[in-house]
Amino acid sequence: MTKTNVMRLLDAAKIPYRAEEYAVDENDLNGMHAAEGIGMPPEQIFKTLVARGEKRGFLVFCIPVCCELDLKKAAKAVGEKSVAMLPQKELLGLTGYVHGGCSPVGMKKQFPTVFHKTAEGLAQVAVSAGKIGYQVVCDPKDLMGLLRAGTADIIVE
Fold first, then answer.
1. Any idea of the CA torsion for 137, 139, 142, 148, to the nearest 10 degrees?
2. Cβ-contact 49, 69 below 8 angstroms
3. pLDDT tens across 93-128, in order?
4. Pairing of β 134-138 and β 83-85
5. Which of 11, 30, 95, 122 is buried deepest, with most CB atoms within 10 A?
6. Which of 154, 56, 65 is nearest to 111 (CA)?
7. pLDDT at 2 over 90
8. Across-strand partners of 60?
């Protein structure tokens, strides 16, 4: 397995992780496919979403792949009136990652990051390793500490 930048950053921060690889279907970059591919429950696989707020600029939200981001709850969690999803075509230039391989670790710039509150109660979560078909599995407390991330209820009920 090729070591990604995300893995190198976790190594540098001395955060233990397990790297997982799964078969990629370019027509199905859905996170549920990643969950099936690495054999973890979808509630433990977190997708990385980038949004823009009026006051705080770019924001990162990490939620389980089986869920949908609630933009109103997300805005409230970061003290914004509203947030809007970043257009997919802007993702690579802003973060250095492509759609389907976006990780909260190692973006070009560290943006304010919020995980869904369920991450706090899990022993392990998986996030993209920064490349389509690769995930890293680690303790969410370690990951959130590295990212200086908070938690909130940010999904559609």
1. 80
2. yes
3. 999 999 989 999 999 999 999 999 999 999 999 999
4. unpaired
5. 95
6. 56
7. no
8. 50, 113
Q: Residue 52 pairs with which residues in a beta bridge? A: 58, 84
Q: Looking up tokens 């392990």, which residue turns up? A: 124
| Token pair recorded at residue 70 | 């609630």
d(CA 37, CA 31): 10
For 70, other C-beta atoms within 10 Å of its C-beta total 18
How far is 18 from 83, CA to CA, in rounded Å?
33
Q: How high does pLDDT run on average in the chain?
A: 95
Instruction: Over range 17-45, report the average pLDDT.
Output: 88
DSSP secondary structure string, the chain? -PPPHHHHHHHHTT--EEEEE---BTTB--HHHHHHHHT--GGGBEEEEEEEETTTEEEEEEEETTS-B-HHHHHHHTT-S-EEEPPHHHHHHHHS--TT---SSS-SS---EEEEGGGGG-S-EEEE-SSTTEEEEE-HHHHHHHHT-EEE--B--
Q: What percentage of residues in the chain have a pLDDT greater than 90?
A: 88
